[in-house]
TrEMBL record:
Residue span of region Disordered: 149-191
InterPro entries (UniProt xref): CAP_dom, CAP_sf, CRISP-related, V5_allergen-like
Superkingdom in the source lineage: Eukaryota
Name of the protein in its database record: SCP domain-containing protein
Pfam families, A to Z: CAP (PF00188)
Low complexity bias: start-end ranges: 162-181
SCP domain span: 198-348
Length: 348
């Protein structure tokens, strides 16, 4: 079965880096395939040239030919990259290099250089036909599979499950006690003063729900429209060591010093709630609210690569969805009638 491909902003960034080299054979990251071409610019509008070139990449199969089993053959490199049956993501970019238009598209996963380019057969008729990636579905109208969340990988979007449980080894959940005795933590044993398991799960689920929405292009922006899909995003894990570091900052009961290098990948919020779970919920809402505020947006112009710029004023939101973050740990400390919520992310 063949899979439909989604636009990937990370792959677009890789493609942009390739064309920025302004050379015929730029470097290609591992696990990716690339189609690349440089042509003379004949117009100020590069779009028609890019469309024509895309068609040429596909049309190479007409001159080289393809056997009945869709096996790879010399000369089919560009076609194989685009027609690769297991490909799920693509990102393209272009650049004018002194009158030559350099065009590139990056595709994930890497296309085969031998064997079958794709499986010959009938289009998918139901979800049972789409077995390559866990959780995949069939878009029967198009006859293409839609990739789900492959297991045991580190570069795929969060899955379609509606919740996750903070854990360091085994999953567990608990509720926050209403008595003055703090319940024992099954997530970060012996660290009951730093947070509660209910707050830890609220924080982890809140982050992963948002990252899942961003990966699928479903987060509304204050300026209108939604964030562009960015599938190469990892599900966060909860880190007790990061929580301990965050709690040390929360214990200071003062504004975070952003000039310190080790505080750059840290989110901070002063909550009016003294209940740790309520404080965590309020902090998440505040950080997420940066992107939904009037006029708020990501720089999603072609080639911009979703770069974070100071004038966007979405730093806290950006840390929550930063694609390279893999762990989060948050400390919550009550200071008088307020709670100081600090979340640290890895890599720091």
């Amino acid at each position: 079965m063949r899979f439909s491909v989604d636009w990937d902003c990370i792959l677009e960034t890789y493609a942009q880096k390739a064309v920025d080299q302004c050379q015929d054979k730029p470097t290609v990251p591992d696990k990716l395939s690339m189609v690349y071409k440089a042509v003379d610019l004949t117009t100020c509008n590069p779009t028609p040239l890019f469309k024509n070139q895309t068609q040429e990449w596909w049309n190479v199969v007409k001159t080289v030919g393809l056997d009945a089993q869709a096996n790879f053959a010399s000369g089919l490199e560009d076609f194989a990259t685009l027609a690769h049956g297991k490909a799920t993501r693509i990102g393209c970019a272009q650049k004018n290099c002194n009158g030559k238009l350099h065009m590139a598209c990056m595709v994930y996963p890497k296309a085969p250089s031998s064997g079958k380019i794709y499986q010959v057969g009938n289009p998918c008729a139901g979800n049972a036909d789409c077995k390559t990636y866990e959780g995949s579905t069939c878009a029967s109208a198009k006859g293409l599979c839609k990739a789900g969340y492959p297991g045991n990988t580190t570069d795929t979007p969060p899955g379609e499950d509606t919740s996750s449980t903070a854990t360091t080894s085994t999953e567990s959940t608990s509720t926050e006690a209403t008595t003055t005795t703090k319940p024992a933590s099954t997530i970060c044993p012996g660290k009951e003063a730093m947070s509660t398991d209910k707050a830890r799960n609220t924080i982890l689920n809140g982050h992963n729900d948002l990252r899942r929405a961003v990966a699928n292009g479903k987060v509304p922006m204050g300026s209108g429209g939604t964030t562009r899909p960015c599938a190469k995003m990892m599900r966060l894990n909860y880190s007790c060591p990061l929580e301990a570091e965050a709690y040390e900052l929360a214990k200071q009961c003062k504004e975070l010093d952003r000039t310190a290098n080790n505080n750059r990948n840290v989110n901070f919020f002063i909550s009016s709630k003294t209940n740790k779970n309520e404080a965590a919920t309020e902090a998440l809402a505040k950080w997420y609210g940066e992107i939904t505020a009037t006029g708020a947006h990501l720089d999603q112009a072609t080639g911009a690569g979703n770069l974070l710029k100071p004038d966007l004023k979405i730093d806290s939101f950006a840390r929550m969805i930063w694609a390279e973050n893999i762990n989060v740990g948050c400390g919550i400390n009550t200071c008088g009638k307020q709670s100081y919520v600090v979340c640290k992310y890895d890599p720091t």
